[in-house]
TrEMBL record:
Transmembrane segments: none annotated. This is Transposase. Pfam families: Transposase_mut. The keyword DNA-binding applies. The lineage of its organism: Bacteria, Pseudomonadati, Kiritimatiellota, Kiritimatiellia, Kiritimatiellales. Belongs to the transposase mutator family. Residues 459-480 have a biased composition (Polar residues). Residues 444-458 have a biased composition (Basic and acidic residues). Required for the transposition of the insertion element. Residues 405-491 are annotated as: Disordered. Keywords: DNA recombination, DNA-binding, Transposition. PANTHER family: TRANSPOSASE FOR INSERTION SEQUENCE ELEMENT IS1081.
Length: 491
């Protein structure tokens, strides 16, 4: 693509696609440049084409296709081959220019990984004494890489995902710099980093900016969404402003932490036991009983702790009031899905001594760290029970069926096509940690590839069995009970 043609192409595409067109052109120019450099070295070794210099002892020997990483993308180029005659034999000559090009890109990747792991740009010479560039070049490379990660995170099309739950939490970077991070959970139980917003504090303006961008990118819910928040009033107001029908679940971990600050240390064990019971019980009645026991305990020991409990009110048992299976409480009653990536993020950014609010420094570090943490995400514990929760939230039956089918298949690849449950994340997430440990959650190929007509028939007839036939047996028993409960069929 010539300079004129790339300018014409840039003028014909949308602004959002202009970057891709330019990068494609730039990679093409780099391939041409590399080919010219290789050809120059071959000419030095063998002389001009068709005019070989016999006294140099080298001759051209064709070429071969080789892989080369250009601008972070694997490309294929033609590498010329040269052979040198020695006595009665000949051997291939290693092209120094090819080794240099190959090593340069590999070195860049290693330096970026070292920077992300906490090695300062000044100390790169210690790791790579013979080849590391100066600290200014390392810093510039890191800036470019960080901005690419920001774009990668914010260019995701959220319309292609079907979310039922959103978690929002904040991370303090410094005294005057904070970040609010959003994470979504799909109908098949995958966790997806949505976006983040940097601000001086967790203010309503910062929350609105984050949610405005998410809505603009296509974040929507087919029924009442579940929103798990850390307790910030700004987050609470902003979520209800953008999603008025959202069901708010307050993070029990944050509330437990706040209540313990109001109590003597000798009462912390009892509070932990009461919150553990609150997280484990299932159903609205049991949830109210556990909350009442916690309230009675606090009323005897601390008025301030009791006020903290009353501040959250029944938002502490929103998931219980929806009669969600207790297996989902591990994930949906707290913001640990975000806190855990924050732990990894803090390990990456702990060496930053001064955050520059006037630059995109914080955005670069957060984008890199959060995307890195996302690679280790698993499906949430109890993801097979999500259809039951969707039924309680009043979601349409089609969404409940889609969630149910996807629970039977690999993450991001539902049993029946056309329901928008494919993943936008670069790495498919594995089974939930609990299922990996116990070996459960495995289904055979027949179960994974049922067609939609058969699925609907099973829903309408009670898993496809006649009253005379009785409930299914064997390997279908667990799946049948899940269908029964999700569709409200009494057994």
């Amino acid at each position: 693509m010539s300079d004129n043609s790339v300018l014409e192409a840039l003028g014909q595409v949308e602004p959002s696609a202009a970057g891709d067109v330019f990068r494609d052109w730039l990679r093409g120019e780099m391939r041409t440049l590399i080919a010219d450099i290789l050809a120059e070295e071959v000419t030095e070794l063998c002389g001009p084409a068709y005019k070989p210099a016999g006294d140099r002892g080298c001759r051209r020997a064709g070429g071969t296709r080789v892989g080369l990483r250009i601008d972070g993308i694997d490309e294929e180029i033609r590498k010329p081959r040269v052979r040198r005659h020695e006595a009665d034999t000949s051997k291939e000559v290693r092209l120094k220019s090819y080794d240099a090009v190959n090593r340069a890109d590999d070195l860049r990747d290693r330096i970026l990984r070292a920077t992300a792991a906490g090695v300062s740009s000044r100390d790169q010479k210690t790791l790579y004494p013979d080849s590391a560039p100066g600290r200014s070049r390392v810093s510039r490379a890191w800036i470019v890489e960080g901005r690419q990660r920001i774009q990668k995170l914010r260019d995701r099309d959220l319309k292609s995902e079907r979310f039922f739950c959103m978690l929002l939490d904040g991370i303090v970077l410094s005294e005057d710099l904070s970040a609010i991070v959003g994470l979504g959970i799909t109908l098949d139980g995958r966790k997806v980093m949505l976006d983040f917003e940097i601000g001086a504090q967790e203010s309503t303006e910062v929350c609105d900016a984050l949610l405005d961008r998410l809505v603009h990118r296509g974040l929507e819910f087919e029924g009442d969404p579940l929103a798990v928040l850390d307790g910030s009033r700004a987050l609470h107001n902003s979520v209800l402003k953008h999603f008025p029908r959202a069901r708010i679940q307050r993070c029990l971990v944050h509330k437990e932490r706040n209540i313990k600050r109001c109590l003597s240390r000798r009462h912390h064990g009892s509070v932990s036991d009461l919150f553990k019971r609150l997280r484990s019980v299932e159903g609205e009645e049991a949830g109210r009983e556990a909350l009442a026991d916690l309230e009675r305990f606090l009323s005897r020991h601390s008025h301030k702790a009791l006020e903290s409990l009353h501040e959250a009110g029944e938002e502490l048992i929103t998931v219980h009031k929806l009669n969600a299976p207790s297996t989902l409480h591990t994930t949906l009653t707290n913001t640990n899905c975000i806190e855990n990536p924050f732990r990894n993020t803090r390990a990456k950014i702990g060496r930053v001594k001064r955050w520059r609010a006037e630059t995109d420094q914080a955005e670069r570090w957060l984008a890199y760290s959060l995307l890195r943490a996302e690679k280790g995400f698993r499906r949430i514990k109890g993801y097979r029970q999500i259809p039951v929760l969707l039924k309680s939230l009043g979601w349409p039956s089609e969404a409940v069926e889609a969630s149910l089918r996807s629970a039977l298949g690999p993450p991001g690849h539902p049993a029946s096509g056309g329901n928008g449950l494919h993943s936008t994340t670069p790495h498919p997430q594995a089974e939930s940690e609990a299922n990996c440990r116990t070996g459960t959650g495995q289904v055979n190929d027949k179960e994974l590839h049922r067609n939609e007509d058969r699925d609907r028939q099973r829903v309408s007839t009670g898993f496809g069995t006649s009253p005379q036939a009785g409930p299914p047996h064997g390997s279908q028993q667990q799946e049948a009970q899940l269908w029964y409960r999700a569709m409200g069929i009494r057994t």
